[in-house]
Amino acid sequence: MFSKMKNIDTAFRHVRGFTMLVITGCILISCFSLYKSFSLVSKMQNKVYILANGKALEAYASDRKDNIPVEARDHVKTFHKLFFTLDPDDKVIKSNVTKALYLADDSAKRVYDDLKENGYYSGIISGNVSQTIQIDSVTIDLNRYPYGFRCYATQNIIRTTSIAHRNLITEGNLRNVSRSDNNPHGFLIERWNTIENRDISTENRK
Fold this sequence. Notes:
This is Conjugative transposon protein TraK. It comes from Flavobacterium hydrocarbonoxydans. The protein is of the alpha+beta class. It is built from five helices and six strands; from the N terminus they run αββααααββββ. It has two domains: 2-48; 63-204, Nuclear Transport Factor 2, Chain: A (Roll). It has a four-stranded antiparallel beta sheet, with helices on one face. The longest helix is centred in the N-terminal third of the chain and has 44 residues, at 2-45. The termini are far apart.
């Protein structure tokens, strides 16, 4: 009788131990599955698929701080290309300058107003002059805020009989603002001024 009770007790203990082991294993597997699921969802949320020319391209989302140098340089380049790319067409000039002025404060507006008052844009239209700009480099100082920048570029002024090349160096600060369709990078150029703008060379057109 006692032997049977002892055997039953021992069997119950084995069953209980095995059951606890199974339950513990299930809990560990469930926790691991949940962890991997959340990890996978988090990774998938950082992925973006872009459709370009009929092809799906995979891109990864990242924090703004990781992209500040790239976005800041592109903001400065975009502003200078819009502000200094001119053709003998009043609508083209107004369109480009208007887009550029969304990217800067009143320091750029003052430069535009001075050029307009001095007849610079009228001279471009009447003389059939085109102006392009090539950005050589942009340096950004991320050690202080607002971020200081300096832009090195070459202007090409194309006239009927000649092409003039001018060296252009400007500087200013970049302040964070809200992103918008008119300002996709979320920066605003402040205290923009020209340090140097001088002729490098002139060549005759054939």
